Structure prediction request, 653 residues.
Amino acid sequence: MSSEERKVEYAKGLTPLALGLGIILVIIGTYINTMCWLGAGVTLEPWFAGRIGSPIYPPFALAFLLAILAYLMKGKLSPQEIAVVTIMVFLTMDAPFVIMTFLEIPVGATYQALKKPQIKELWDLMPDYWTPRDPSLVEPLYVGGAVNWGALTPYIGLAIFLLLIYLLLVFFLTTVIREYHIKVEKLPFPNILPVVEVVKYGVVEKTLFQIGKMIPFYIGFIIGLIVAGISVMNYIAPVFPVFFAWGQYYLGPTLGRFLKSVCPSIRGWWMFIPADVAVFYLAPLDVLFTGTVWTFLGAILLPIIFVSAGVVPAGKNVGFSGPFQWARMARFYVPIAVGIFAVLFGLRTYITSLRKAIKGEKPEEGELHPLLVWGGFIALFIIYLAVWSAIGAPAVVAFVALLVWVIDSIGSAKIVGESGTWPSLGGSYVNMQAIAYQTGMALGVYPSNPYKSTSSWALGAMVAYTLPGYAYQSPATVWGCLTGYALAEHLKVRTKDIFIAMLVAFLVMAFIGPWEVLGYVSKAGINNLRLAWGMGDARFIRMKQVPYVLKSGYIISAEHATFFITAIILVGILWFLRMKFPWFILNPVGLFFYDGMWLLNVGTAFILKIITIKIFGAKAYERVGVPLAVGFLIGLGLGAFLGMTAYTFIKAP
Prediction:
């Protein structure tokens, strides 16, 4: 491909208009998001309506509004500019998940040390520069009142620094793996297809406002608006059991109770999530088939078989106990197994790229220099280890912990790339800390479990802020950045443009976001807010820093190691068979699904997609099914945008 052809194919997206609009929306969106979570008590980015299902999806409604804006501007807003704005907003959605965790450093430990003896005991092990030693400095944040920002600033500055190097490490790791997963593997990323399609309708084909040609889209759009209206009203006058995550319909009291009556060991977080069904409908059939079969086997059949055979007692959760702990493997081990094979199969691409960096080869126009990509990642990796070693984590265990995180993050990114759902990095800290601590015990760094020391605490702190809080559900992760690169590839944005746009978004998030969160909580008082996770109750200190220090932490037993190895073998076999036989339909990514929640939503999408293709044909799926699903997601997002933004401003203090 000549450079001239590449200029035509990949266009500039980083214009002053796109960059300025992106920064403004990120700043405003983060504040409204903070109000919605902490004040209204709903986990939603209302202004952009990204969390309209179980994962955080790109802002579908925003892309729709930008397509309308492009139409009104008569083409002066390009698809590439829309991609830049969308990606900047997407990366910083659900920012409170991440920011509140890092603000736990200067705020949570000091305040909770006043109330909980165990936290006080751990607090005494923390360096003096880590948290204020004067509780009166943080108490106004909890009860309301004047805050001495000058005295708190050094501690907040440390939290911002750790947040920044975390975000940069995520960003550069993603940039290293981008070429293989986006250019070579060409992962489909069904979660971005609604954005791609609505930009195509509105800006490329200019059919968005030709109602006659877009009937399936607008039917889906209207249905989406209706469902959104029901979801919004459910917080005002509840009809269905209300879960704090918007757009999820909890069926535990109905379906869950019925299934438990069939077999007491049938467990599950039984939720019907319309947005997830629509996104899964856009996913590849092999992922849907594998996920449906796997979750039906694990969530329904295995409990009945094991209980009937007397293998496990009635009521025992067979997903995490018994002879075949399918849920344990799926949640904790499959992402790492997928990551291992992703690295192995991408090795040739990585070696070639690294050689180009060493040789100093110039990239094609619009591409990133390999030296920047690899140099940035290696530098951040070393800086990250050096910082945590200086804080107290022994270098060898810090290296092992970070290596586990890298592999798990790569596997999770591939899971998102093929399925569109969120990966379970929430369980990954278990492996990250357990493997690192067991390494430390083997080397004599930690004489026992638990081991009361600053060194032992520092490892837990490193894990807590490398898998920050519930950030695995936010796009401030490797899978989030890779989603951004995938969207740029679909809408033909120059790589260097999207690189700079995402970097700017992270910088805004790191330097402005914490002050937005602190500004809001200082007015209302954390004790008066509902979902101030981490910062409010120091849960990530209790979950990830107390274990191994003051109480024994999880050690991978021989039994669990067997399931770890089993997961790696299963993923490897399925990967090999897929490479060997093109007709082989089972996809190892589908082994990630570990709960009945996915059986409901993946299974529903699979049935709908099979009916569409087998009865009406593949063309009907493309011409009717896809626009219908896209329209539904756009309508659902727009309804959430309008309804929940209003609800947030009315409800939040």
